[in-house]
Every structure is written in structure tokens, then in C-alpha cells.
Amino acid sequence: MSERSGAGGSHLGRTSGVAVVGWGVALPDTAVTNADLEARLDTSDRWITERTGIRERRIGGTTGQLAAAAARQALIAADASPGSVELLVLATSTPDQQIPATASAVQDALGLSCGAFDVNAACSGFVYALVAGAGTAGVGARRVLVVGADVMSRITDQGDRSTAVLFGDGAGAVVLDAVEGPGQLLGWDLGSDGSLRHLLQADVGGYIRMEGKEVFRRAVRVMVDSAEAAMARAGLTLADVDLLVPHQANTRIITAACERLGIPMERTAMVLDRTGNTSAASIPLALGDAAQSGMLAKGDVVLLVGFGAGMSWASAVLRWGP
Ligand code: ACO
């Protein structure tokens, strides 16, 4: 066994925090605008924009390709060699194959030689993967690559106007380094209510089906509850949030959650209008966009909040900065 693949052994028991030292995003080249959908479905730009906030979504590629592209960028940004990564966690609910995990293909594409596995918590997946990845730092992993990637277009019936207008494809990634002390992950909250799994589902080989109104109603409530729980765990209040990075499913859901949390939209990361709902990719895409556009400064408190099929929900509080 190589020294790399033995991560954890000699450090087991040491408790470390993590720091985000690099991030990357990837979107397919092909844009599908509301006008494109208008041309082939019984829908309108006005309906889609008013009801969802989405103007276009990107379609194409495979989950593995998009994940590898975002992860490669994150490694470059972190100045991290592939050999230094000690664990890859890929959040997706659209794996390229049933077996093996898509993380295996990403590992191969990037030339990594570490453990690699997929996490499926639907649209909450990236935050689940982040918390799981950070947890391994507590038992000795020194560098963890966390990716959220989904090709929702593959499980969306493009002839069904109630779902075809909502979803898109993409990926986002972060590199986490173990650091001495508490690190940047200040608090988290992961939750699930499996009795609600009928609200949003796709059978193996089938298309996504959703009770949109019911998902909407519950999404706002679980976002607010989860955000409050994570902030309390971090020992902070909602007034301390510098940037909210919510799951990008519907502008109306985000607006309603922001109102209840008392966080203004100016302090909320939004990419939904350009990406649609990219499931596990949506939070790292919005985080990357916020970082790129100068919305984040060293020391900022960043609150990630996801919800999705399961129903699942997940929040994480990060202290941004090198
Ligand atoms: N264009 C035009 N009309 C449409 C469209 C469309 N694309 N889609 C639905 N309609 C019609 C419906 O048929 C309905 O018509 P009717 O009144 O004649 O019956 C009318 O618009 C209203 O439909 P609703 O479903 O009631 O519309 P609503 O305001 O609830 O918006 C939406 C629908 C956008 C899906 C909303 O409910 C929503 O965003 N829900 C949450 C979805 C979500 O977040 N899903 C992702 C979770 S993440 C994950 O895990 C993948």
C-alpha cells in the first residue's frame, strides 16, 4: 500500500478542522433558453421567469466529465497535485453507470490514487459530501476533494413542461485541507424525512416526477429550520451571515426563505437564472460564482443551505478565507 492511500493511519484520533483552499465550476457549452422551450413546449418565457426565475439552463456532457472539469479547476486553484488528494467524495443522483461509482471515473480522469465514492442525497448532496469529507479530516485525511455534479437533463422528460423547464446540468468542486484547530466549518445540520420520498422521485431508468407545490411548501420550511440549526451549532445568529448560498431550485422558494431568515437578497448567491436547477451542483456553482464575482471577503460567514428529494436537507456554516 502506498503512503498516500494509507491516509488516516498515523493520524487517527487527531481532530482537525478544514479549510476551503480551492474551488472550481463546470457547465456544458449548450444553453437552452426559455425561448427554445417556448418553441417546442406549451409554455412561455413569462411563465417560466415569473414562476421559477430561470432564464436559461446548460445541457450536455456526462456527470463524470463535468465533475472532472470542476475538480481539475479546484485543484489548480488550490495549487494541489493529484497525488496529494487523500479522498474524493462525489455527490450526484445522476451517476453515469449503476456500477461503479462515478467517483471512480473522476478519480481515473484526474490521476488520483485515493479512496473515491459517490453520495446520493439529491439536491442536498453537496453539503452532505462536504460534511462527510470534512469529517475524515478529523480522522487523519489531509486533503479531500468534494464535488457536486448532476446531469439532470438525462432524467428529465424533455416533453413534460412541468419539469423540462426546471432542470440543467453542471458541476462544482472544492478542495478541503485539514488544518490545526477548528478550521472553517463552524457548524452543520443534515436531515431527512424518508416518509416524504414520494414527493420527488425517479425510478431506475425513469424520469423525475414531482409534486411541485408540496415540495415548494416544505422546502421553505426545511431551509429555514436547517439554516437556524446550523447557525446555532456554529454559535452564531442569522444576523452574522454575510452570504447565503441556497440550493438553486426556484427564486420564489429562495425569496420566501430569505424573508423568513431575515437575509436580504443582496447577500444571497444566485445563479439559477443562468443554470436552472442543477441538483447537487447548484450550491458549489453558486458559491464559485459568488467567489468569482467578488461577493466574498476573508472572514465572511457563509451559510450553505440545501434541500431536495428524500426529502433531505443540509446546511453548513463556513468562515471564508485562506
Ligand atoms: N409552462 C406553463 N404552464 C405550466 C408549466 C409550464 N412550464 N408547468 C406547469 N404549468 C401549469 C400547470 O399545468 C398549472 O395549470 P392549471 O392551473 O391549468 O392546472 C399551472 O401552470 C400551475 O401549476 P403549478 O404546478 O400549480 O405551479 P406552481 O406555481 O406550483 O409552480 C413549480 C410550479 C415551479 C414546479 C413550483 O411548484 C416549484 O418550484 N416547486 C418546487 C420544485 C423544486 O424545488 N423541485 C426541486 C427540488 S430539488 C431535487 O431534489 C431535484
Summarize the structure in short.
The chain is an alpha/beta fold.
Describe the structure.
The chain has 322 residues and is an alpha/beta fold. It has 2 domains: 17-179, 3-Layer(aba) Sandwich (Peroxisomal Thiolase, Chain A, domain 1); 185-319, Peroxisomal Thiolase, Chain A, domain 1 (3-Layer(aba) Sandwich), CATH 3.40.47. The protein is 32% helix and 25% strand. The protein contains 10 helices and 13 strands. The protein has a 5-stranded mixed β-sheet with strand order 1-7-6-4-5, with helices on both faces. The chain has a 4-stranded mixed β-sheet with strand order 8-13-12-11, with helices on both faces. A hairpin with a 5-residue loop joins strand 9 (200-202) and strand 10 (208-210). Helix 3 (63-77) crosses helix 4 and helix 7 runs parallel beside helix 8 (251-261). It is globular and about 55 Å long. Bound molecules: acetyl coenzyme *A.
Summary tags:
about 325 residues, alpha/beta, Peroxisomal Thiolase, Chain A, domain 1, 2 domains, five-stranded mixed β-sheet, four-stranded mixed β-sheet, 10 helices, about 30% helix, globular, binds acetyl coenzyme *A
Number of helices: 10
Topology as a string of helices (H) and strands (E): EEHHEHEHEHEHEEEEHEHHHEE
Extended strand count:
13
What is the fold named in CATH at topology level of the largest domain?
Peroxisomal Thiolase, Chain A, domain 1
Helix content: 25-40%
Please tell me the CATH architecture of the largest domain by its name.
3-Layer(aba) Sandwich
Provide the low-confidence segments as ranges. 1-11
How many distinct domains? 2
Main sheet overview: 5 strands, mixed
In this entry the ligands are: acetyl coenzyme *A
- CATH homologous superfamily grouping of the largest domain: Thiolase/Chalcone synthase
Q: Round the mean pLDDT to the nearest integer and report it.
A: 94
Task: Indicate the proportion of strand residues.
Answer: 25-35%
